[in-house]
Design a protein that fits this description.
This protein is mainly α. It contains 25 helices and 7 strands. 63% of the residues lie in helices and 5% in strands. Strands 4-3-5-7-6 form a 5-stranded mixed beta sheet, with helices on both faces. It has a two-stranded antiparallel ribbon with strand order 1-2.
Length: 526
């Protein structure tokens, strides 16, 4: 692909990401982090974290620091919460390119960027923003700078690598250090570049890390004492392997083996082909251009699989490395059968997107149907022999699907996030914590969009002292009936439909069944 085509495709990616940036933040995690960042604005000490006024010890502070700063500079908006993480995602694309360029041709490096940027996971991580987006950008940057150090050591590379590792640690704890160490260490081990590790300038890395972690460590000590430091450096991550962390689920060691394929859609078949080709080369003791991408990604994958609590977005940190593995195989002479199957997968993804746009939310669908038709026609034009055209067309199709999702599907779906709608309503009415309450319903999006921690009411007896003219209570139908039965008749009632937008089902997407499966929420205005 030419440079102009590459740049145009990245511009298209920026458009898709920008469309996702303005969408409402989703419950639970993103809305909670947005609310905490907003709460931090009113704090005099940003080294200590709070959620709804209570001490918070779960995630490190970098996301909150950056989003609170963005709020302070740009105001409180959906996009200003997401902006710092999106910038780290862009840094991740750049670092992926530069890492691939160290040992591969420019075409392979560009393809690695398009594989990562055109994946389902990238569209998710720049929309539903959690700590993993920053972690991913920081880790791949640390790996790139560390690998560049092995080629040509310098003070600048040591300082940069230390800063990137610190950012990863401040984003999500020890994984910010372990992931780069595993990837770079694997390359050093298999290429026997031990002498690079004896360079005195390498001592700058831990020094920079220690200095940048100091504010967080002081905050943990002031807020939680030694237990806060132990939680951050051990229990938060390693405790999930040993069982010391309270977060546990029933996932098996193989959980991520069925999560990775859909996260890297539509490139999944080429990822599998790349893993097969490279692992076979390692077994046969054939040299690879570098080992950080293959062995590093697999070691991180295994480490995450050993955790006793797993979620799909934990894999984000591996995707830049897996993207390089995928890009390598895309520039080898490929199987026509594989290309045909890939074409069938693209057709299926396009068809699913078209059906969802045309059927699920018919209002306002035509511009997005036109976009999808344009993308489909573009795919029909790529030739089976030109691998570069395959990559371009695949990426273009994913961007048209991304435009349809971020421009049409998500805006309609997010109207059913009742907590956000109720919080927005309270803010528009100018209601504060003395006039807006939640009765047996709450949520992080409710707090975020209302602009304060919405007070909780357990029952009618707790509601009785606060009900007066101008007060609004957000609740569900059973508790609304309890209030009416007790004689508290509202002057106005607002009905909202609700379902978890992160756990969509066919019933939620089906216009004929949607309202039947959605929960009901009610605002009672007295």
């Amino acid at each position: 692909m030419g440079e102009r085509t590459f740049i145009l495709l990245l511009v298209l990616l920026a458009v898709v990401v920008a469309m996702g940036a303005v969408l409402d933040v989703m419950e639970v995690d993103a809305a909670q982090y947005a609310a905490m960042s907003r709460e931090m604005l009113g704090s005099s000490d940003w080294t200590m974290l709070y959620h709804r006024g209570a001490d918070y010890l779960d995630k490190p502070p970098l996301l909150f620091w950056l989003s609170a700063t963005s709020y302070k500079v740009f105001g409180i908006h959906n996009w200003s919460y997401k902006l710092p993480s999106i910038l780290f995602a862009a840094l991740g694309l750049f670092a992926t390119y530069r890492l691939a360029l160290l040992h591969h041709a420019r075409e392979v490096a560009r393809t690695a960027v398009l594989v990562l940027g055109g994946s389902a996971a990238f569209l998710l991580m720049t929309n539903d923003v959690r700590t993993d987006t920053i972690l991913t950008g920081a880790v791949i940057t640390a790996i790139w700078l560390g690998m560049a150090w092995l080629d040509r050591p310098s003070v600048q590379l040591a300082l940069g690598c230390g800063a990137a590792i610190a950012a990863g640690l401040l984003a999500k704890g020890p994984m910010g250090l372990m992931a780069p160490a595993l990837a770079i260490g694997a390359h050093v081990l298999l290429t026997r570049q031990w002498r690079r590790l004896l360079d005195a300038r390498l001592l700058l890395v831990p020094l920079v890390v220690a200095l940048l972690l100091l504010p967080m460590c002081l905050g943990l000590w002031k807020q939680f004492g030694a237990e806060g430091l132990r939680f951050f450096f051990w229990e938060q991550s390693f405790g999930r392997i040993t069982g010391e962390n309270v977060w546990k689920d029933d996932s098996t060691f193989l959980y991520f083996t069925h999560e990775l394929p859909w996260l890297l859609l539509p490139w999944t078949l080429f990822l599998l082909a790349g893993l097969w080709h490279d692992l076979r080369a390692v077994v046969r003791r054939e040299a690879l251009p570098e080992y950080a991408s293959l062995i590093g990604a697999l070691l991180i994958f295994i480490g995450l699989s050993a955790s006793q609590f797993k979620l799909p977005h934990y894999l984000y940190v591996t995707l830049p490395l897996f993207s390089i593995v995928t890009a390598r195989v895309l520039h080898r002479k490929g199987s026509r059968t594989l290309v045909r199957i890939h074409g069938g997968l693209l057709a299926l993804l396009w068809l699913v997107a078209m059906v969802l746009v045309a059927w699920s939310f018919p209002t306002g669908r035509w511009p997005f149907i036109a976009v999808l038709l344009t993308g489909g026609l573009a795919v029909l034009r790529w030739t089976r022999r030109a691998q570069g055209m395959l990559v371009d067309a695949t990426f273009l199709l994913m961007m048209t699907i991304g435009i349809a999702i971020n421009g049409h599907l998500y805006p309609n779906i997010l109207r059913y996030q009742a907590n956000a709608q109720a919080g927005k309503w309270a803010a528009q009415q100018g209601l504060g914590p003395e006039r807006f309450y939640g009765m047996q319903v709450s949520g992080t999006a409710l707090d975020h969009y209302a602009g304060f921690a919405v007070p909780w009411l357990s029952d009618v007896e707790e509601a009785r002292p606060v009900i007066r003219p101008g007060v609004a209570i957000y609740t569900d139908p059973p508790h609304a009936r309890d209030l009416r039965d007790a004689g508290f008749i509202p002057g106005r009632t607002i009905l909202l439909r609700n379902f978890s937008v992160q756990h969509l089902s066919l019933e939620h997407l089906d216009p004929a069944r949607r309202d039947a499966v959605a929960d009901e929420r009610i605002i009672l205005l007295y």
